[in-house]
Amino acid sequence: xxxxxxxxxxxxxxxxxxxLLGTGGxxxxxxxxxxxxxxxxxxxxxxxxxxxxLCMSAVSVFIYGRGGGLQRSECLKYGIxxxxxxxxxxxxxxxxxxKTVKRLFGVLLIVAGANMSGLF
Length: 120
Description:
The chain is mostly helical. It has helices at 3-21, 25-36, 42-66, 72-95, 98-116.
C-alpha cells in the first residue's frame, strides 16, 4: 500500500473515531505511527499525535458546539484544570525515555479498557 493511502486511511479513521466518540482517534494514530515507524522513539510519535489530535478535536468541538452538544461551563472548568496537567505531561515526555512512555501508554489503555468494559 502506498504511504499516502495509508496516511489517508489512518487519518480518516482517526478523525471518524474522534468525532464519533469524542476520543480514541489519537489512540489509532499511535498504533499506526508505531507500525509505520517501528524504530522511532515513542516520544516523537506521541508529540505528532498531539498535534493531529488538536486538529481533529478543533473540528469536533466546532461541530458539537454548532449542534448544541457542549456544556460550556464544564468545558471551561476541565479545560482550565487540564492546562497544568498538560504542562507537566509535556515536561515529562521530554525527559522520559521512549520505552517508559510506551509502557505508560499501555497501562493507560488497559485501565481505560477495563473501565469502559464495566470492570470498575
